[in-house]
Protein 1
Amino acid sequence: MLDAICTLDKSQDEPYSVFKFQKLSRDEIEEYRQFLLCPVCRQKAFYRKASKDGKAACFGSRYHKLDCSEFKPSQAKLREEQDALEVNQQLVNSDALVIDFSKPATVKTAGDKQRAKSKKASSSKSTPPEKLACDVDEVAGSELSEGDPVIPQKRVATQGLEKLLNSLLRGSDLADSDLWVYTDEKYRWRAKNLFVNFADAEPTENGAPRMYWGTISHSDKSMTWLNPADCQDVGIPIDEFQKALFHQFAIKERRDIEGAGIIMFGKCFWNKGKTRKIIQLWGKDTKRMFISKSED
């Protein structure tokens, strides 16, 4: 996209070409980029600055309507649509869904490639999958009562973070579903209570975690904070695991994560001044976060 509109001034839309936008001051860009829309279908858009390797600055959107003239289906977009159909079908055909935090991505990340090499070099003896353990001192979803089945044995779907994120970005029914979703063997949630868009994030009682999702507008200069789109009062600190996260998803510069889709299992709480909501990755385990870089 070479053009976008800015809705910062509620009384009128301000049109910007990417050439005009990139000439704004750094502070203006950081402020205006949170209010960008596609000029055709008026879905939320993002700005990506020029890259170090010569890629031009551009606008983009992961929310174009299908009949939008700016919508150019790439292989990634077609894959996201297919993932949305698959997850919707699982909602219809399943009694429960188990989130597999260790399921590899369809598009190989740097972390996937490294794990594949390690697996090949290791013994061929099979080992049980790693169990996701929630912090015992914090409240999560509905804890199963004595006598309840750990996980129902019939019609149980399993899905990784990549397809769950893609389906949410493409408008699946997951975020409104009554389906039971298991984040581990002990805790289950109704999907509609578990999946929360960043724009709707609110601190939870006793720090109970949720699956937060949406897109990234931009990061700070040091790339230690991620700022979700559509919400100026929410931040995601990543400084304590930044190196591992960036290696896992091959992120080298700010441009790599501008407009990226993201889903994470974390908790939301206020900062000390109650001016900003912080979403902290649960256990600071990067396997509980997935980032889908934009191809726009």
Protein 2
Amino acid sequence: MDLSLWAKLNGTLINVATVALGTGLGLALRGRLPERMQTVIMQALGLVTIFIGLSMAGSMNKAGATLQSTALAAQPIVVDGVVIGLVGLVVGGLLGEWWRVEQRLAALGDWLKAKFNGSGRFTEGFVAASLLFCIGPMTLIGSINNGLIGDSQLLIIKAALDGLAAIALASSFGIGVGFSILIILIYQGGVALAAGALATILPNPAVDPRVLIITGVGGLMVVGVGINLLDLTKIRVASLLPALLVAPLFHWLISLL
């Protein structure tokens, strides 16, 4: 199917528009709401984010990999998806710290803050929004569907959710939330444009165990974002991003053995 550029990217562009609109509404509310109300909004968003993350994390239970019979066992050994997710997070986290992913993303936020005369918690809002809007199965599966067959339904649903979240985030963090549209365009739009190649690797992404393990690992990262929004502690979620590549790679290696 030969799709136009608009057909491949319309879901992403709608997502960008809703985040921009949500940011604008959040900024309009920011100066009008007492601090205690802004705190309640952020706590509500944090709790819902944790719930969404935990729901996603359950996908790891369906993503076990089978290690075929070896000299140590006559029968195939099933490696639980949670174990694969744990290895992915640990190894990915170590790689993330080595590559200084957290610092580089924060540095990008600081650069944008200086470039556009941002103030306050600009960088914190940029990082939190970028992670929240781009981690999850709706981003990956929705972008593949949009780029491959022009189906933007999943991304439009995601766009509505992101727009609502942007209102809450921008009311507390400010305009930095709006600059997350750059990450949405690069990542989500990039996946949509590369959907043809991805389709040969993931013919049925909704039930592919590699996507399920990415969803589960990503869900735990979303939980981390929620914990950060609640100010319970500081989880270096960006440093864990390499796990989204390490976990499915580990799953693939086990399946080969």
Protein 3
Amino acid sequence: MKSAAHTYAEKAIQSIRSVEADPDCNNKDYGRLCLLFPSMVQVNGLRLTVAFFQSKGKSQKTLHQRYLQDLAATVGSAAWETGLSTNDMMDYRDLTRHVLQAAVWFKRYAEAILKVEAADGLDS
């Protein structure tokens, strides 16, 4: 039986590899989102961070939307949708914990594979 961390690591590397192979995707910008997301969740909470990322992709499919989709696939789309809309704080905290655990893997792989550094800034 695989641990949750192992599952998150596998799915995160698949997502990062697909971004790396996509010629239409800006690898550095996606990597910066991977670095930015966990700290935004820590400061603002999961709901506000997701709302911010969703608002960035309203008019067109953006890297923000792609990151959210990749993250949702990693933690489980069903858990993602129900966890964000629930009023049960235990479910929300559990989802936040799982999302942060998965986001750490995205961050690690962005640094290792996409060669993004914390000093790199976001222009958007």
